[in-house]
Amino acid sequence: QVQLVESGGGLVQAGGSLRLSCAASGSIFSINVMGWYRQAPGKQRELVAVITSGGSTNYLDSVKGRFTISRDNAKNTVYLQMSSLKPEDTAVYYCKREDRYSDGRVYAAYWGQGTQVTVSS
Fold first, then answer.
1. Separation of CA 71 from chain center
2. Contacts of 92 (CB under 8 A, 6+ apart)
3. What are the backbone angles phi and psi of residue 7, rounded to the nearest 5°?
4. What secondary structure, in 3-state letters, does 17-69 show?
5. 6: Cβ–Cβ under 8 A, 6 or more apart, which residues?
6. Residues forming beta bridges with residue 10, ordered by sequence position
7. Given 5, 44, 51, 93, which is the most exposed site by the fewest CB atoms within 10 A?
């Protein structure tokens, strides 16, 4: 079983920055995808950014150029550096990890408990 523990959320003014961290513990697959999702009140959860164990990344269009996802495989930790934050970035941010077989099929998926990010105007 994998546990994900997020940290780094909080309240920030528009234009400010925050860095989220998500540490994974438990059994670790070498092939995995880690990502950040967010859910604002009354909206569906959406993908913000993902990074593979090989370092490939993908971003939601609205955060490109402002957010950067990275990972430290030795620490089993993924980060989300958020800059130039906007009020519309306000949401609960969730970390997700997908453990995958070598052919890409998902073996298991795990979610963190979520961390609140609030951007004031």
1. 10
2. 38, 39, 40, 114, 115, 116, 117
3. -155, 165
4. CEEEEEEEEECCCCCEEEEEEEECCCCCCEEEEEEECCCCEEECHHHCCCEEE
5. 20, 21, 22, 93, 94, 95, 112, 113, 114, 115
6. 117
7. 44
